[in-house]
Amino acid sequence: MANHTLNYTLDQLESAVAVVKDQMKKCQIVTFTGDLGAGKTTLIRALLRDLGIREPITSPTFTYVNRYKTEDGKTIYHFDLYRLNVLQEFMAQGFDEYLYQPSSWCLIEWPALIMPLLTHSVCHITLDYEGDSRVMRWKS
Q1: Per the structure, how many domains does the chain have?
Q2: Phi, psi (5° rounding) for residue 4?
Q3: Phi, psi of 65 (to 5 degrees)
């Protein structure tokens, strides 16, 4: 697997969206890691818009997950697990049942806690920032 890096500004967000869409052709689950303010939610919001989601797109920081439907019938689960403390809390909410559903993708911010559940078809994206520029890293 080769390591890749993309440097982009918010004005060039479409280049980062294209990378994530390319990863989604190979993976049912895409994880997003990076410090607060690295642009995880901003990137996911732009991706969802690009995939045709027209309803309001909000961060699931307090609800843990938002569900969206694409025009072609795919379901997208957007998780934000920043406030989650233990894996059992994820399981108790039944969120593990959302993983690997047919005709769906999971976009997961702050995935560290549930990594043991992500056993296959997973792509990992790491985001960082350097001033006004964002840095995205992934393997393929």
Answers
A1: 1
A2: -125, 150
A3: -150, 140
Could you tell me which of 87, 92, 94 has the C-alpha nearest to residue 116?
87
Chain centre distance of CA 65: 11
108: part of which helix (H) or strand (E)? strand 104-109
pLDDT, position 37: 87
Is 89:65 a contact under the CB 8 Å cutoff? no
CATH of residue 46: 3.40.50.300
Is residue 83 helix, strand or coil?
coil
Residue 140 has pLDDT above 80, yes or no: no
Q: How far apart are CA 73 and CA 68, in angstroms?
A: 10
pTM over 0.90: yes
Residue 17 lies in domain: 3-139
Match 């390591």 to its residue by tokens. 3
Residue 3 has pLDDT above 80, yes or no: yes
**pLDDT tens per residue across span 70-125:** 999 999 999 999 999 999 999 999 999 999 999 999 999 999 999 999 999 999 99
